Amino acid sequence: MSHATPPSQTSPKDPAPQVQQAPLRPRPTVTTGSAWTFPHVERRELGNGLTVLTVPLPGQEIMSVQLALDVPLASEPADLEGIGAVTVRTADEGTAPHPGHEFAEQMEQIAASYGGSAMPTSTMLSLDVPGEQLPTGMELFAELLTSTALDPVDVGRQVDASVAQLARTAHSGPSLAQLAANRLLWPCSSRLSRASAGSMSTLAAIDAERVREFWNQMWRPDRGVLVVAGDHADEVNLDVLEQWTGTPRAESTRELTTTAAARRVLLVDRPDAVQADVGLQLGTPGRDHPLWPALKVAAAALGGTFSSRLNSVLREEKGWSYGVGMSVRPMKCGAIASVSGAFRTEVAAEALVTTMQILDAAGDPLGRTEVDEARDHLVGVAPLQYDTAEAVSAQLAVLHLAGLPSIWIDEHFARLAQVGHDSANEAWQQLLDVTAWQIGISGQAGVLAPQLREAGFEVEVISPDRLLDLAG
């Protein structure tokens, strides 16, 4: 008895059906990318003395507004340190037209956000807002600049927040290490030798009256720059900011230069620490030095990339750390080179000795491959570094306060691309004196201090409370 094969099935003896494949397209050719340049910037001055920079960025629908004020931390009265941050954070907690929560509700209705910080070199205020809501956003921003409420209750809450920040810093190993290095790097009279949040004694003296006085004196349009970046930024009407007025004031306070002391270690004792956090600081020349691009490349080769010398030895070869980083940060006057990392307590002293050996230009010079990779990395990340309106506006604001034009960025990257093996080593030898690094360490002093002294370091031990003036 035979059975017919159902129409829906294929007999085992039948050949497999042929699958027709679409013809493959030719593989695309990879070509060298076009040269990157910083976006075009337009400049104008408002009647109140405020400099305005606009940067059209097609497709960037979220507008970034950055207001940089020439109000560095050094502008704070010595007995009111921390008042800059309190003023920034309280400014958006109500205005005369929109008191209390009303201002926040108005901002929320247009999906806008306000931010700001008091920094070593300036005070920065920011507004992010969708492009179609920018006119309303600028009205609210102008309102904040001209009629912020600075209510005593809000000021008191922000002072309490700064006190809490100090308490958190007392338990943060990396923060304590960097602050300890700052204490050695800067003269004791310098604002930068102390915590940006202030101290218990200075915060206790801050009230609404003092904050308003500081706001009236320091938040002035004649010493500021407003940057607007985003889609159609050049079409923005900023007449609303003309109402922000004030008496022109004298030149801002210029920060003191760093000390020239020999290398020292300030050890912050944290008996319960599970690791040793290390921070190194060194004063260097800044953007105006002819070797500045070469210095950036040298720092990247030494510790600025994952394949740098510090990481290759301390992480990959020795296994002492999860990672070590190095950077050079420009200031208004000069720059600061920094190294940071965390190590197991039992090897911290040996790791510090090895770190100083790596940073010593008298040792092996940087190789051509090291320099090429570091330089290509710095040049190659430029398009990503400035791929948002916020990044563009923030960079322009910083450059303006430093007295540099927007074209400086393109010129800097052009010089950076020309850095070679010889100039990178020259910058290392001339500008990174290994004997001048100031060292802050946070960890178990009972274990670390004897090891460090045996390794030849001059060590001073200090408590977190004393470093931060938590006792008031």
Automatic annotation (TrEMBL):
Residue stretches of biased makeup (Polar residues): 1-12
Residue ranges occupied by any Peptidase M16 N-terminal domain in the UniProt entry: 54-163
Signal peptide positions (record): none
InterPro entries in the cross-refs: Metalloenz_LuxS/M16, MPP/UQCRC_Complex, Pept_M16_N, Peptidase_M16_C
Peptidase M16 C-terminal domain span: 206-376
Annotated SUPFAM superfamilies: LuxS/MPP-like metallohydrolase (SSF63411)
One GO molecular-function entry: metal ion binding
Region span, Disordered: 1-34
Protein name, entry field: Peptidase M16 inactive domain
